[in-house]
Write a structure and sequence with these properties.
403 residues; alpha/beta; Rossmann fold; 2 domains; 8-stranded mixed β-sheet; binds ligand PMT
């Protein structure tokens, strides 16, 4: 399961006003059934009481190097042995400096120095402190040790300034955490994914579109990023936030999607077209709102470019091309036909009539059709489905390099 269930996370909280946000992160971790142990620095306790963290985690908080309680002796060694990852949030300039210089002058820095598990640092500080060469040097030094950094957000800071230095959103840190528990098997590859619907304008007020929410394509983008890929996501109009760590390109029409894809496809090792591109668009878009004072109107539609077929026609050796087929009947035959006609390596066929499959739901049930075989997957979350598609892409790549 691509989530944090059962993962043992050591949450290090340090002395920033953003410490209160760490309490919310802890709640999210506990909700996902992660097992969280909290270590607080003395400065962190000035901002939030340890009681808050112990109430939320269901465990007392570790604070003191010299605690004599029997289960706390040698905590600096045992805590990291009993965790899968350390998440420092918020991480102050002071803590980052401490860690960069291998100092062991409080429990948290000592635990981290003694740890041989992944460490994720989520900085939060004033923007001048963050951009100071000393902090930047310390961050680079920690990166050279293999520590992972979560880019702080930008906006109004507690000190009143506007700039970089806000503790990132939980979703961003969560993605970094999840990537630690995934194989890095797409590292070195660039994947181009399309998602969502397109909109084709009729007049300034109306458009033709479809029911695609973008959830399938965004799940593909998130999972590919977690597995180490560079991700370019070309998305039609959707109500979803861009996944962190990817290049997102927002488009509206099929023609815009075509241009965005064609401009970038040559850099991609894999192209996955999960977008529901409108097959037709109005021949003309009226300059003014079409009036309803008539019995009915006739719309002249013309065909949109078939982006996938165009990619299939200019295939280069080594690039894997994946299409989706949204079908309401004859699923297997239609999938086979589109595989051949659009000249792709893999067709992902999904049923758009099922209550839990296809458009705008969290799950999907697909058949993966390649030139050799058809594999029907069970009903899975869209993220799990996406992971199975990446597994198949890797299999096709290894078969093609062995051929
Ligand atoms: O976004 P969600 O709500 O999560 O829903 C997911 C989904 C149902 C949209 C998705 O799983 C899906 O099936 N996407 C493909 C929808 C579709 O357009 O299917 P199609 O059978 O009409 O097209 C076949 C393929 O050709 C698709 O890869 C499509 O992107 C591509 N195409 C189609 C028309 C066109 N003009 N250009 C294209 O590139």
């Amino acid at each position: 399961m691509p989530d944090l269930r059962g993962k043992r996370i050591l949450l290090g909280v340090t002395g920033s006003i953003a410490a209160y946000k760490a309490a919310d992160w802890l709640r999210s971790l506990v909700k996902e059934e992660a097992r969280v142990t909290v270590v607080m620095t003395e400065a962190a306790e000035r901002f939030v009481s340890p009681l808050t963290f112990s109430a939320l985690s269901g465990q007392s908080v570790y604070r003191d190097m010299f605690d004599e309680a029997p289960d706390r002796i040698m905590a600096h060694i045992n805590l990291s042995r009993e965790a899968d990852a350390i998440l420092v949030a918020p991480a102050t300039a002071q803590t980052i400096a401490r860690l960069a210089h291998g100092m062991a002058d409080n429990l948290l820095s000592t635990v981290i120095l003694a740890a041989r598990i992944p460490v994720i640092i989520c900085p939060a500080m004033n923007s001048f402190m963050l951009s100071h060469p000393a902090t930047q040097d310390n961050i680079r030094r920690l990166e050279s040790f293999g520590y992972h950094f979560v880019q702080p957000g930008s906006g109004e800071l507690a000190c009143g300034e506007i700039g970089d230095g806000r503790l990132s959103d939980w979703d961003v840190a969560r993605e970094t955490l999840l990537s630690l528990f995934q194989p890095n098997d797409l590292k070195g590859q660039t994947v181009l994914i399309t998602a969502g619907p397109t909109r084709e304008a009729l007049d300034p007020a109306r458009f033709l579109t479809n029911r695609s929410s973008g959830k399938m394509g965004f799940a593909l983008a998130r999972t590919a990023r977690r597995r180490g890929a560079e991700v370019i996501l070309v998305a039609g109009p959707v109500q979803l936030s861009d996944p962190p760590g990817i290049e997102a390109v927002h488009v509206t029409t099929a023609e815009e999607m075509r241009r965005a894809v064609m401009d970038r496809a040559t850099t991609a090792d894999v192209v996955v077209k999960s977008a529901a591109v409108a097959d037709f668009r109005p021949l003309v878009c009226a300059d003014h709102k079409i009036k309803k004072g008539q019995q009915g109107i006739q719309l002249d539609l013309i065909k949109n470019p078939d982006i996938l077929a165009e990619l299939g026609a200019m295939r280069t050796h080594g690039r894997i091309l994946v299409g989706f087929a949204a079908e309401s009947r004859d699923h297997a035959d239609e999938g086979q036909r589109k595989l051949r006609e659009k000249n792709v390596d893999l067709m992902v066929v999904n049923d758009i009539l099922g209550a839990s499959t296809g458009f705008d739901v969290e799950t999907n049930q697909v058949t993966l059709i390649d030139r050799r075989e058809a594999l029907t997957l069970p009903l899975l979350s869209k993220e799990e489905t996406a992971d199975r598609i990446w597994d198949k892409v890797l299999q096709l790549q290894s078969e093609s390099s062995a051929a």
